[in-house]
Design brief:
Layout lengths: L5 E4 L17 H14 L3 E4 L1 E2 L6 E2 L2 H4 L3 H7 L3 E4 L9 H11 L3 E5 L3 E2 L17 H6 L5 E2 L3 H15 L2 E6 L2 H12 L7 E7 L9 H15 L3 E7 L4 H10 L3 E4 L6 E3 L2 E2 L3 H14 L7 H8 L10
Parallel strand pairs: 1-2, 1-12, 2-5, 5-6, 6-9, 9-10, 10-11, 11-12
Antiparallel strand pairs: 3-4, 7-8, 13-14
The structure holds (5S)-5-amino-3-OXO-hexanoic acid and zinc ion.
Length: 308
């Protein structure tokens, strides 16, 4: 089996600051954890911003610029900017920072769906910020909007406009067919880096059978034109990601997807999760790709062409 790309998603927009003191929130924290995750073996850093004042998800270019230059200076990892942002944001807000920076990579969510976070309210917590509870509660009536028009817009603005390539976030089989559709329309060319997303309430559940079926259908739709990676939410992260590594896929870890490092134990940093998956994939006989190897594999334009 060939080399493996480790992506680390540093902070995301799902978890809230009260859930873990280790979730990076400020620009300095995101930069520091990103550099450490890259040193530990992450070739790609998947990035969201937060408002440093209270940790709420933010799409503001100003907040992104609180860590992007530091990451570009402190690591050669591929900087992958989320265009998913948070489901509460408009697409134009979600695109503001990526359109300014023209990153090598950006995420692209391949369908409109539910994105329910309210089960995380079941645990008793001391909430540190007044926005956290209402944010989670309102997710029972939240639509994460990624229509075909939205997808085409992102492909045009970032892909055609900036030479950005994509981490295609596929939470369901239907999202593979949407990717095939836009590829057939000539909106995007291979190789396709497809992130199978498990365990978001609104997408497919974290069952191993779903992973084997996603691979089977992706093989049918894309043949040799794709690579798959896996992320799984919460406690399903390491088991499903390890399964992906054993099947020849790529892996994503990070505190965006799971706050823990073992049963009931909070990860102290993103790097701790990278170190753990690195040990697992190396024990499986696979070699971790450097950022430049990942660039070559994914056909990225190179960090020199990013406006940072
Ligand atoms: N938060 C993950 C479930 C994005 O940023 O575009 C998916 C994600 C979406 O990373
Ligand atoms: Zn994300």
């Amino acid at each position: 089996m060939s080399g493996i790309i480790i992506t680390c998603a540093l902070t995301g927009s799902i978890h809230t600051p009260s859930m873990s003191p280790h979730l990076p929130v400020t620009g300095a924290e995101i930069a520091e954890q990103g550099i450490a995750a890259a040193r530990a073996g992450a070739a790609i850093l998947h990035l969201h911003a937060r408002d440093p004042a209270d940790g709420r998800p933010s799409a503001s270019p100003e907040h992104f610029m609180g860590f992007l230059p530091q990451l570009a200076a402190g690591t050669d990892a591929v900087l992958n900017l989320s265009t998913g942002g948070s489901a509460v944001m408009t697409l134009e807000d979600r695109l503001a920072a990526p359109a300014q920076v023209g990153p090598e990579m950006a995420s692209l969510n391949m369908g409109t769906m539910n994105f329910a976070l309210y089960p995380m309210l079941e645990r008793e917590r001391n909430w540190r910020h007044d926005w956290e509870r209402p944010f989670l509660e309102a997710s029972d009536d939240l639509v994460f909007k990624n229509t075909p028009r939205d997808i085409a817009h992102v492909l045009d603005r970032l892909g055609r406009g900036h030479g950005t390539r994509f981490e295609f976030e596929c939470y369901d089989l239907s999202h593979l067919y949407m990717l095939r559709h836009v590829a057939d329309r000539g909106m995007v060319a291979p190789p396709f880096f497809i992130q199978f997303v498990f365990g978001v309430l609104g997408g497919m559940g974290p069952d191993p059978e779903n992973l084997t079926h996603m691979v089977r259908i992706a093989d049918k739709l894309f043949g040799g034109d794709y690579l798959f990676s896996v992320l799984a939410a919460g406690r399903h992260q390491m088991p499903l990601v390890s399964m992906a590594a054993a099947m020849g896929g790529h892996v994503r870890v990070g505190l965006e997807d799971s706050l823990t490092i073992g049963r009931g134990r909070l990860a102290r940093s993103n790097a701790e999760q990278v170190e753990k998956i690195r040990a697992i994939v190396e024990a499986l006989g696979r070699t971790v790709m450097t950022p430049d190897q990942a660039r070559g594999t994914l056909g990225l334009k190179g960090a020199a062409l990013v406006a940072l």
